[in-house]
Fold this protein.
Amino acid sequence: MPYRLIATDLDGTLLRADDTVSQRSRDALAAATAAGAAHIVVTGRAVPWVRHILDDLGYRGLAVCGQGGQVYHAGEHRLLTSVTLDRQLAGLALAKIEAETGPLALAASRDGLEGEVLVGPGYRVQEGPLPVVAYEDPAELWSAPLNKLYLQSPHLDDDELARVALGVAGHLVGVTMAGAGIVELLPLGLTKATGLSLAARRLGLKAADTIAFGDMPNDIPMFGWAAHGVAMAQAHPELKAIADEVTASNDEDGIAVVLERLFPLG
């Protein structure tokens, strides 16, 4: 067997632009798991934003959510591990960043199986079915444990904002860019590789057993951990630069293209 563990990002990778998983991708993953490989979803989304996708896929195994902060057992609908952001450090980091950028629009993901995503004034939410709760009082943002903080700037693009945040606050918090308009502050040292390594260990698998698929800079640590990293055709240049392979886009079944080569159907 070429790889015993298949790690797939969701948005821009396994999911098509319409937030669905193609039948071809489903069949390719089914063939790989029938051959004995394990499939682990590794996503920046926290559990409440990913559970419906896993249920639709009939996914019963482990999933790494919240940018590596949550290991979730989909079959049992329970969190096995959950890492939260130190809110005092996050507040200090935010103050340092805003001293450089000016006021930012903010959102935050609360911890837990039912954790809400709070969205503040001016924060641009992507269209779709994912639920959010608007807030006006800044104190509400910090009133309960958080997985992550989302930042948006009215003046800087995502790459610039992430570079500034990392430069002035990277010693306090983790900083990553997970997609368009999605710059995140995380617990220091937390990455997708952190959660994936924990989940793999529970399955008795190692980095050397793993092929990983992704499309954004937040997938770089996962590619660094896995034996083989595959970037989607439309992936961010920073990820493509360190990928072992570039496949077709998410809308062109890029994961299936690779898995069909490695795990041929019948």
Observations:
- The mean pLDDT is 95.
